[in-house]
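Teaching note: in complex prediction, the entire set of molecules is handled at once rather than each chain in isolation. The prompt given to students was simply: 'Predict the structure of this complex.' The entities are:
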Amino acid sequence: MTLTPKTAPRPKVAVYKFSSCDGCQLSLLNLEDELLDLASAVDISYFLEATRTVKPGPYDIGIVEGSITTPHEAERIKDVRAECKYMIALGTCATAGGIQALRNFASVADYARTVYPHPEFLHFLDKSTSIAENVPVDLSIWGCPVNKFMVVEVIAALLQNRRPNFPPSPVCLECKRRGLVCVAVAHGTPCLGPVVHGGCGALCPANGRGCYGCFGPSSAANFSALVGSMTPLDRYPNETAGLLRSFSSHAPAFKSAAEAALKLSSEKEQK
Amino acid sequence: MTVPLSMPNAGGGSAGYASKLLLPHWADIVKIIPEAEGVTTYHLRLTDPEVQARYRFQPGQFNMLYVPGYGEAAISMSSDLESNPGLVVHTIRHVGNVTKAISRMKVGDVVGLRGPFGTAWPLEQIRGKDVVIACGGIGLPPLRGALYHILRQRADYGKVTLLYGARTPKDLMYPDEYETWKQADIDVQVTVDRGDETWNGRIGVVPMWFYHFRVDPRKTAVLTCGPEIMMRFVIYEALARRIPTSQIFVSLERNMKCGQGACGHCQQGPFFICKDGPVFPFSAIESIFNVEEY
Amino acid sequence: MLDSTLNTGSTVALPKLELDALLADLRQNGFQTVGPRLQDESIVYREIEGLKDLPRGILSEQAPGSYRIIRTGKERYFDFIPAGQSWKQFLFPPRHTLFSATKDGTWQLKENDEPAPRYALVGVRACELAAIAVQDKVFMRPDFSDPIYRLRREGLFIIAVNCLDPDSTCFCTSMGTGPRLRSGFDLCLTELDDAFLVEIGSELGRSFLASRTYSLPSAFMQDAAARALTRAVESITRTLDTDGLPELLLNNLEAERWNDVGKRCLSCANCTQVCPTCFCWDATDAVDISGKNTRRERLWDSCFNPNYSYVFGGNTRPNIRSRYRQWLTHKLGTWVEQFGTSGCVGCGRCITWCPAKIDLTEEAAAIRREVAK
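The expected output is the structure of the full assembly:
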């Protein structure tokens, strides 16, 4: 896509919400110094979380938060796609189905029966799916929530006709650059850092926690090596599998790694 | 206690300092020549006349071109000092962040420039020899400066053959110059992978052209630049004709960030391609050239 | 005061509390004193003021992929073996702004002219000093001198410490780098229960020591230190057979073992980041949304990074196998041709801090075994 702010009017941006907690949209609102720059560089035409004022489409950039979990959403995302030239999936719900994709490993109908007296009034899909599984997506920004500076970088890159500067390196590299102590090696805390895409600045390890993988798979990732080295260290059954089945559980690499970890655990138990 | 006078940088580094690392000079774009689909030649002049006057390079070397906000790209010079005095000429294929940003520039815009870096084609060393220049696609621009040098010193070299291939006729670089080169007694052999309605020349790959002429291995040097697969076969054909490995010169391409053998990216075996290369005699890299993914 | 007896090469006994005064003196003279601290159940190198900041009574238990602090309750300050961090972070900062560019009509460059900090490193081990010597050769070559490194290096004050309690991942004896310090420091400590033996390594070191209260070491002290050092050497059991090692690796680039380790390696880059000699860096632009302000930054990179060897059309080392092979053959092989020294000092960090428990001494040995077959 070509956006040339000098000659064209400011590109129109729309922010949509699907099944999600609104945390990624809040990250946008949490942009403080950058929000003014952003507002002057683009025309924020549709962003219900920020303002009720809506300018009609079509839009140059559509930013979509959330996953597709209902028949209504599955239809609505097609309309959204049709009115946006360039579509960005924002956050791990939009890129990989999010935490609500845990339903994909269970029967959501059973849950509905347990929780609601009249589940027949609910309309839901069996699986929570990413935006890209429903309509074509031009760019994905992972994270639960996203790193707000990555959103600014993406919009800046679009305005400047360049590839966004997304570090392709794993979380470990960011962790070490910050001089943090490796929680896996020094504390025995399970950490997905070695296989997870950087961009968060090693936020969880900086707070003494292992990486949960919310930024999705790194392009260098060796999941089978991770499963092989981590699963034997499980402190309780299926610890590694459980970690892989959290925020990014529906991402294909995480899905197959979790299955491999479960298999490895059950083999170990049988012995 | 008092600090001995011999202490270096006494005062905890209170004197300000500036690291010149990666700091570019500015260069103005003075001319833009479209060459082929997605390929453009730029004539640059260093903005500071003093820097421009000092600037010297040899064909085969490269500069790091910088576009603020986009980064740097390593680009070979596509001419020589004598052919374009006071200018730095680059032929650029617009495929990455930086080169695409350059494609949107116009005359009068500026780019950052650091260089020259790397080794040059051994034009002195091969004086008196027959020269085979075998190149493909964007591999011709780094050799054009060498060709210009040979044209000017034509009597110093024996038989000179240019084997040049591109994907399609539209991808051929500098077609207007071939006639001049031919008139200077350069055997220009151009081939394409796929012809079109206008094409009545040859179709095929560069290394095949070794079958069409005789070389005297004792007095022939080969200069090659282009896709690694093409160079592999050029080397194969050259070796099959018993041209010594020390007389085959190869220009390698690797990811480069600094151009000074410092950042580590361009390493292949013991070499930093940016400072020990990009031009190597094949004899130096023989043992590593064919190692897969090395 | 025994000033007349102090020379480079002489050794004195320094009461432990005097180290506090020595560090204060260094700080007064513009040095930033950095040294070991206990933090997050590990040892990190941070700014320290004095003895109170040092990790007293701390040992570690290190193994491939595992590091644990042990609290011994003892009174000594330097019993521990260094953890994941190295001094590299001070001489070759993980992130460093090179310059900024601003467009106001035309582009203006502004170099980063922040003054280089002047560091006094406290507690540098023999392998670590050897690592600094290796990086000196990398960053301060005749044909290229890294300005950021050089300025920090030239201003350095080094208080070294002899290792008396090596860990199971240490193999400095194989690399000829330790555990005993020989030269390259300003002052070198050997810690005894009740005092430091301090060897003077430079005129600058002598000048700082001269104003402290010290005594001549007793024969008993010297004997205790010598015995402790001998015990340290004997306690190192891990080995790396360096005999013909570069040739062994470089002549066997297609060994089966590379495929094997390629399956186990996470390509997470941890080994390269904890390695005190790895020097690769990247440069990126951080530009604002207006496109008119950008900052060019240098940061640590790694040959395990997926885009490290990217050229148009693809990655020259797309597989982890070839990335690991690049790292190991460079570290133990081609480094010698490039810089006249091995890139490995035997500190063992890459072994301890590899989440996949890959041990380079074992990888090299496995290739030797494979070739011998």
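Point out the following to students. Strands of chain A lie at 12-17, 43-47, 59-65, 84-90, 139-141. The longest strand of chain A covers residues 59-65.
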